[in-house]
Predict the structure.
Amino acid sequence: MTTSEKLVQMAIAIVLFFGVMAVILLLTQRLRSRAGERVQAAAFLAPTLLLIAVGLLYPAVKTIYLSFRNNADSAWVGFANYEKIFTNADQLQTLRNTALWVVLVPAVSTAVGLIYAVLVDRSRFERFAKALIFLPMAISLVGASIIWKFVYAYKDSSQEQIGLLNGILKAVGLPTYNFLLEEPWNTLFLIVILIWVQAGFAMTILSASIKAIPEDIIEAARLDGVSGLQLFRHITVPSIRPSLIVVLTTISISTLKVFDIVRSATGGQFGTKVLAYEFYVQSFRTLNPALGAALATLIFVLVSPIVIYNIRQMRRLEAR
Amino acid sequence: MSTSTPAVTPGLLESPTPPEGTAPPRSAASAARSGLSSRLASAAAIVIAVLWTIPTFGLFVSSFRPEADVKGNGWWNIFTNPSFSLENYRTIFTDPDSDLPRFLVNTIVITLPAVIIPITLAVLAAYAFAWMDFKGRDTLFVAVFALQIVPIQVTLIPLLRLYTRPPEWLPKLAGEGAPGGGFYTIWLSHTIFALPLAVFLMHNFMREIPGELVESARVDGAGHVQIFTRIMLPLMTPAIAAFGIFQFLWVWNDLLVALVFAGGQSDIAPLTYWLGSLAGTRGEDWQVLSAGAFVSLVIPLIVFLSLQRFFVRGLLAGSVKG
């Protein structure tokens, strides 16, 4: 397709869509009776409910079903697909890596976000300082991976370095290091990328809730002679506890689903695979849809309790 | 004040401004900070800020260096030995072999409908949930809300099969001769994945609009359609903006949905796909990679910076998506 053909297709789609919407609104606008209201409600809701049922509910159920079937979807295999995930050496490494990601990313990005929020709070350059940390959130994970691949770029010690980290290593007289290739530490260097992206989110939410701590609590504590780190530990942290939990759980959820970073930075090689990446490979590359479905279901099982807990915490935050 | 964020109380995300004439009140944080030596605190803040900025800065600088320099020595050499060139950008935009323009167009063509359609559908549905009376309303709403917990990974395999091998009576949306060259699968998928969250956010916002407003309009003889278009839509602008930016960033930066539904078709795959494969196949061509990466991130960055106010409001509620 040429560029103009694509743009025409886009225009057609949008016009078509608004056309259908306009018809729905026009057809139902004369209805005023009680029965009419029911027809109207159905018209307003039908597109959304249909899409959700066909595109979300049915596929989710189907995936769970497929995870207990063989690849050709011709026979039941019980828990065989799940067994593979928990016994195959390759898969076990994927699980271990995922666990490492889920522990480190939320913990470190929340810690950095919290410290930074406290440090820049009410300083002269607060807005600017916050924007610096916040910006990576607008960058795609693919873009972030490229940015960091450049930081990690490796050349032999004898050569001129183009990667910042190896440039520093060389400048202080150490041998250069292939950050993305050397197992097992390469996983840690990939984790750094997501921490870099997520710290801004943590900082924004936590900074807002620090500002919401009532003045009198702080004044009272200060009159009692509490200050500095003690104030931080005994007043600040307990006061923002609900936000801290929401931030931690939220980041855990996105970490469990991370896929782009591993794909762009190492292509899942050198022992860096994670669950969501393995799901993609098994489902759409090596064509093991049964195993892929089991991996997807596993992600679902791991994510849903955190999401439910997270939503409850958010409601509590809201109710305060 | 109304807010689109169900999860955060309105005041929570805006820094309170101190009343004029009084000294700014000390927050817990600033009190804690003064306890540490303030100079040490500033130093620590600067270290974090520098660590967070340098990676992007390095790539940005590199995109303006001549190819030989980018490949030959570190970007920090510009401080001692400045060199500057727009050649990299000229190459990726005008070189006939360059794929960037095509993928950039794809990303734009994917993004616009994938933002407009779910918002419109969600506002309509949210209106029905908020202001219309029908049996099973609350149950249905809770069901839509609960579907937020479904990670998109769980839906991808069956959804792709539906597109490629639909039931006889439905048109095929993917593969040979697909309508719109296959764009419909991507638009539709993004729409589907956005809906539960969008309906939820719009509904929460709509419930905050005073019921008397709707009641008095009804007494004056206005129907639901008039109330929706004349009263609700204008009032909904902040919520629509908040979710719009969120969905825009999500779609623009997405890789997984595009990979699954566009495959590697260069006719419909977005920029993120191009960049990702470039990083794999031409990982040493930093002059192309750095400039390409910057083209891909400058547009979301502009949108983000100019509309940050709206975005931050929806941030917490939206972060569960995907």
